[in-house]
């Protein structure tokens, strides 16, 4: 099975097309092999390259580097999450551990963009958790209590104030948190590709088909060759399960999103000329919606169990209709044909929304499973898994290791039945806000 992405993602299409990409054409041997070149794999490669300047390090991806979920996301670098996967965060102690990791993730991205002078439309404008349902105030008040206990700067807003800021009167209640960042994920991940150390050999459009461990060597089969590595890091996130990695602990979910063209002056005026903003849903299956710096509207409002390798254009077109309706509900004055692009992307989930960061065997390491927080956490986990694999123990690793570990999943067919039932229920609960 080959990973085939639609090529409709605006974030990726904003970037210059890449040239001189290399694929695997012959058998190779190396000290280090990293599978997957998204935020995690690129960050792991950068760190390994710095730590081991004389060793042979290969970073390989089934598609073009950074063009999986890492460039197909909504661009929220989160400090807090209300719905991380299926769970609402009620447990203060575990929630603190989670936000400690988010905080380190923001720091890791900040450090990277400072060091490499990256322009990725960084805007630390915070974010809203908003709902059209007045009764969701109760959920937000509970969340506010947790945030206050942990010292996060935030406040509640209601319809009038919100419509001035967002340019839509759709939302009735929201909680604003000050600490989140909005950015252009395509620009960020492209900067990670461009700044790989010279000793990293980047191979693209080369999919790992099968792997095994023979004595202390990891042998990996690709369509056009084999790579033998002394040490390997799996950074394939939504595709960990399909490679048999921690497969009883994680599963893929496919999301779809759409982006409008930039609003014209007149259209922008008709919605009150708002500044850039980002809204996350109060209920898990509600829409994520964002006004970008250049006046485009992004909406992500589907999540489903789907064969992760490829979403057909006809299915994607059906999801686009949902996104069109989502925009129309919030901005009825905008024209029907305003969507410029629609795309799908695959994320990785665990039962209890916990991340994977682990040595799974001698010389075999894995980092992933971030749900909707992979920009920061992926960057952090990539760097730290490289350090851990190099036998270093950092303060960050100690904090990461304190997190709750993923719970065991039920076997198939119960797993898919359980996920589908849960998604269906959450979709019903959030139906007004999709
Ligand atoms: C629509 C959408 C919205 C999102 N919104 C946000 C958001 O606002 N904020 C946020 O923080 N996160 C968000 N996420 C999640 C975020 O994108 C991911 O958590 C993040 O991309 C994970 O990075 P990664 O490098 O671990 O995995 P990926 O970016 O998925 O990279 C994994 C790479 O592995 C490669 N690969 C897979 N299998 C193989 C194989 N067999 N051989 C070789 N290579 C392989 C893939 O091609 C891919 O490039 C969103 C995701 C989606 C899809």
Compile the SSE list and pairings:
Elements: H1 10-13, E1 28-35, H2 39-51, E2 57-60, E3 76-77, E4 83-84, E5 87-88, H3 92-115, E6 127-131, H4 137-149, E7 154-158, H5 159-166, E8 173-177, E9 181-182, H6 185-194, E10 200-203, E11 208-214, E12 217-222, E13 225-234, E14 251-260, H7 265-270, E15 277-281, E16 288-291, E17 297-304, H8 313-330, E18 339-349, E19 356-361, E20 364-368, H9 374-389, H10 395-401, H11 414-429
Parallel strand pairs: 1-2, 1-13, 2-10, 6-15, 13-20
Antiparallel strand pairs: 3-9, 4-5, 6-8, 7-8, 11-12, 12-13, 14-17, 14-18, 15-16, 16-17, 19-20
The structure holds flavin-adenine dinucleotide (FAD).
Description:
The strands form four sheets. Strands 1, 2, 10, 11, 12, 13, 19 and 20 form an eight-stranded mixed beta sheet that branches. The chain has one domain: FAD/NAD(P)-binding domain (3-Layer(bba) Sandwich), CATH 3.50.50.60. It is built from eleven helices and 20 strands. By secondary structure, the protein is α+β, with helices and mostly antiparallel strands. Residues 85-89 have low confidence and may be disordered. It has helices spanning 10-13, 39-51, 92-115, 137-149, 159-166, 185-194, 265-270, 313-330, 374-389, 395-401, 414-429, and strands at 28-35, 57-60, 76-77, 83-84, 87-88, 127-131, 154-158, 173-177, 181-182, 200-203, 208-214, 217-222, 225-234, 251-260, 277-281, 288-291, 297-304, 339-349, 356-361, 364-368. The protein is globular. Bound molecules: flavin-adenine dinucleotide (FAD). The site of flavin-adenine dinucleotide has 41 residues, from helix 2, strand 14, strand 18 and helix 9.
């Amino acid at each position: 099975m080959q990973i085939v992405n639609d090529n409709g993602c605006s974030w990726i299409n904003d970037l210059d097309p890449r040239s001189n990409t290399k694929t695997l054409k012959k058998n190779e041997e190396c000290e280090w092999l990293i599978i997957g070149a998204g935020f995690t794999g690129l960050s792991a490669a950068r760190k390994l390259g710095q730590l081991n300047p004389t060793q042979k390090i290969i970073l390989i991806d089934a598609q073009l580097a950074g063009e999986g979920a890492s460039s197909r996301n909504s661009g929220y670098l989160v400090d807090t999450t209300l719905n991380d996967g299926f769970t609402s965060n009620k447990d203060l102690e575990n929630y603190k551990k989670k936000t400690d990791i988010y905080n380190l993730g923001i720091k890791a991205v900040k450090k990277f963009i400072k060091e490499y002078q990256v322009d990725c439309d960084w805007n630390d404008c915070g974010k809203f958790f908003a709902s059209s349902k007045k009764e969701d105030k109760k959920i937000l008040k509970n969340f506010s209590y947790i945030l206050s206990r942990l010292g996060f700067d935030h406040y509640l807003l209601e319809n009038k104030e919100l419509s001035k800021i967002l340019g839509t009167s759709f939302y009735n209640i929201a909680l604003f948190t000050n600490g989140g960042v909005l950015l252009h994920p395509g620009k960020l991940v492209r900067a990670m590709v461009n700044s790989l150390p010279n000793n990293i050999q980047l191979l693209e459009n080369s999919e790992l088909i099968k792997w095994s461990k023979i004595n202390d060597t990891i042998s990996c089969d690709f369509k056009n060759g084999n790579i033998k590595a002394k040490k390997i890091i799996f950074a394939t996130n939504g595709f960990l399960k399909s490679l048999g990695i921690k497969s009883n602990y994680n599963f893929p979910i496919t999301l779809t999103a759409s982006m409008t063209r930039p609003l014209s002056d007149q259209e922008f005026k008709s919605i009150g000329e708002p500044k850039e903003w980002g809204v996350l849903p109060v209920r898990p299956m509600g829409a994520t919606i964002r006004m970008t710096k250049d006046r485009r509207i992004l909406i992500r409002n589907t999540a489903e169990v789907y064969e992760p390798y490829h979403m057909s254009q006809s299915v994607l077109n059906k999801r686009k209709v949902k996104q069109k309706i989502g925009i129309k509900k919030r901005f009825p004055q905008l024209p029907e044909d305003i969507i410029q692009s629609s795309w799908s992307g695959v994320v990785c989930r665990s039962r209890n929304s916990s991340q994977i960061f682990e040595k799974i065997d001698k010389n075999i390491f894995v980092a992933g499973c971030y749900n909707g927080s992979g920009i920061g956490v992926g960057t952090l986990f990539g760097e730290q898994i490289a350090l851990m694999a190099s036998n270093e123990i950092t303060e960050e690793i100690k904090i990461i290791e304190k997190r709750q570990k993923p719970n065991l999943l039920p076997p198939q067919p119960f797993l898919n039945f359980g996920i589908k039932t849960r998604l269906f229920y959450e979709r019903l609960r959030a139906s007004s806000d999709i």
